[in-house]
Amino acid sequence: MSNHTQFPTADMPASVIPPPPGVTVDFDHPRQQKVLEHYLIFGIGGTIAFIALCQRFYTKIFLSKGLQIDDAFMFLGWVASVVTQAMLVASIAEGGMCAHAWEMPLSRFVKYSIDVYVTAPVYMLCNGFTKLSLLTFYLHLSPQRWFRICVWIGIVVVSLYSGCITLLMLFHCNPVRKAFDFTINDGKCLDVAVLYIATAVSNIATDVMLFILPMPMIFNLRMKIAQKIGAMLIFGIGSITIATSIIRLVLLPKLLTSTDPSWDAAPANIWTFIEGNLFVICGSMPTLRKFFKHFAPKLMGTSTNPSSYGAVYHASYANQQSHNTKSRARSQYQQFSDQNEMHTFHSDHKRGMDDDSAFTSIVVAGGGRESADDMSDKAILQTKTVTIQRD
């Protein structure tokens, strides 16, 4: 007898919930929603994310100082994103995800539940690893104590909440198997939808934190307003996932009272796919300028603006120098490139000295006089090291 019949019948496989009255059930060809959207986002968005990651690694390995810990975190985040999307796409193809629970035989619903049980903590790891990648990258931006303390606090916070939510998603049922085996009647479970909402809320909070962290440093830069806005946009683009997390947060509460989670979760899962790809794409943007500058220098262009800056200096260094020397005229500065490259400064305490004194070594791209140039570092043509002793 065909499975395409009125539910229930004696020879039909059991489903986890009965259909609404008058609904015709088709186990072989269940109705599904948002299927094409999932396929397109996984196929196109996943490909773009992979290209972005390859660009990042190529730039780091061949055009920069090599891979670092932030690249390892980003790679792990990408793997977690791919695993999450691939498993859910496979579930869609099998008639699980995006289908009504009453149009799935019990065996298929158990398989769907296992997929969801596995992908939820894996996606939480994607979130955590990509956030840690950006935070460890921040450690290279400035040696200022307050900034590094804030970054380390962010690293601890992201590590703790990512680990806690991941463990709760894995062990929210007692016994654990009850999370995906509906034949087990004994035991208790937390509401996993609450954990999904906690994930979205934590994403929003940490995305806002990652956007705000470098802002004071940018505000204090001695540069034109337009250049400050440009620097803010660079960091702001990486926080575009705030929008996706907010959309997911709006969609997820429906799951709290849902009796048909495989169907009701489909719209929120679309934004999970988008967010997972954006984590990798946005996280790979810091190397994009150097990559295009190497392969398409004309596309990036050069600067003839005599007041353009070749590096992002923190205001504390500029202010310290400007108190001691006068600004030099900039009319002689012509044809500078790489105006938005970021460099860091390292402050080393000399061994054997008191804590109140230290040497700050600043490597500048240039020669000429030792007086400050009021941030016009692109005018300097040779490398020079200036040592400032702080008493």
UniProtKB/TrEMBL annotation:
| Keyword annotations from UniProtKB, A to Z | Membrane, Transmembrane, Transmembrane helix
Record's GO cellular component, any one? membrane
Q: Which domain of life does this protein belong to?
A: Eukaryota
Question: What is the first-listed, main subcellular location in coarse terms?
Answer: membrane
Subcellular localization: Membrane
Locate the Rhodopsin domain: which residues? 56-293
Q: Which residues cross the membrane?
A: 36-54, 75-102, 122-139, 151-172, 192-219, 231-250
Q: Which InterPro entries match?
A: Rhodopsin_dom_fungi, SAT4-like
Family to which the UniProt record says this protein belongs: Belongs to the SAT4 family.
The identity of this protein, by name, is Rhodopsin domain-containing protein
Per the UniProt record, the source organism is Colletotrichum chrysophilum
